[in-house]
Design a protein that fits this description.
Layout: E1 2-10, E2 13-26, E3 31-39, E4 64-66, H1 68-81, E5 86-89, H2 92-102, E6 110-113, H3 114-122, H4 130-136, H5 147-162
Parallel strand pairs: 1-5, 3-4, 5-6
Antiparallel strand pairs: 1-2, 2-3
Length: 163
């Protein structure tokens, strides 16, 4: 089981988590399952000055607006249902740090960061934004900076690079 994660925060104060999204890919069955949670306590905090505000534009299912506590419970239930699980992320260290601050303590079997993987397979010295990686691999994408979409597209980027 591959598990991609993305956390969005309020651009004016990154201590406020506004969204959590994850994408689970079962390689044995070639099936994606995507989730997008909007944090109820911070629902009125909107981005748009420095990063796009796409909180309301999840395209891989239905967003769930609930408390941070319920979000963490759902995340942990999905994480534990797929164990052993490999964690995928784009600049994944940031997301892991956010998860720790909100009380989600995951223990992956292995971790793959799409920024590092991209640099390794292209011999690039520079990190690339997710949008650039998706474009280079011919993956059509919409509404980045939505945690659910970003998690799904991070998974797609990982799978394309792994192939």
């Amino acid at each position: 089981m591959f598990f991609a994660i993305d956390v969005e925060s309020y651009e004016m104060d990154h201590s406020y988590v506004t969204e959590v999204g994850w994408s689970m890919f079962n390689s044995a069955e070639n099936v994606f399952q995507d989730k997008h949670y909007i944090i109820q306590e911070n629902v009125t905090l909107r981005n748009g000055r420095y990063v796009a505000d796409n909180k309301d534009r999840f395209i891989f299912g239905k967003s769930i607006c609930t408390t941070l506590r319920n979000t963490v419970r759902s995340l942990m239930a999905d994480w534990e249902s797929g164990y052993p699980t490999i964690l995928i992320g784009h600049d994944v260290e940031n997301d892991v740090n956010y998860l720790k601050t909100i009380g989600a303590h995951i223990k992956p079997v292995d971790v793959f960061d799409t920024t590092d993987l991209y640099m390794a397979i292209t011999s690039s010295q520079n990190k690339r934004k997710l949008s650039k990686i998706l474009t280079e691999f011919g993956i059509d994408f919409h509404f980045l900076h939505n945690a659910g979409n970003d998690a799904h597209y991070t998974m797609e980027a990982f799978l394309a690079m792994a192939r």
